[in-house]
Amino acid sequence: MAARLPGASHRYHLRLESSPFAPGTAREAVARCCADWRIVELMHQARTVVSELVSNAVEHAGTEIELNVTLRGQFLCLAVRDGSPVVPRVREPAPHDAAAPLDIRGYGLRVIGRVAHSWGAEITPDGKVVWATLALPDRDHRAGPL
């Protein structure tokens, strides 16, 4: 029998235009969620993951983007929906060119894979959703409920 995640205790939704500003806006939104939901210990990881997810949507889909942030039990779930049905795949990183230090590519999903508890993608009728979960550390030491 598969384990079921508990219902969401907190949810946040944001629509973003596909623009160079979208990853920064998503990072700020996730940081606010982490602060408001008292899970600041995940802020850095969540900002890193959402930045990669949204950057990929901007670069590869070029469509409107929807960000959903959900806290379910011990997991922070980040989901990015875009209008492209092309599922992301882990690619070999481009060779490093010292003359073009900002052109290092192919590390986004590898970063997500290292930071996130799990991640994946699902085709939808109007595009896809790429998601990642981050596990909350043991909260026994924390004072008071969320």
Give a written overview of the molecule:
There is one protein chain. With 146 residues, this protein is α+β, with helices and mostly antiparallel strands. The chain has one domain (9-92, 104-135): Histidine kinase-like ATPase, C-terminal domain (Heat Shock Protein 90, 2-Layer Sandwich), CATH 3.30.565.10. The protein is built from three helices and five strands. A five-stranded antiparallel β-sheet has the order 1-2-3-5-4, covered by helices on one side. The protein starts with 7 loop residues before the first strand and ends in an 11-residue tail after the last strand. The model is unreliable at 140-146 (pLDDT under 50).
Name its key features.
single chain, 146 residues, alpha+beta, Heat Shock Protein 90, globular, disordered C terminus
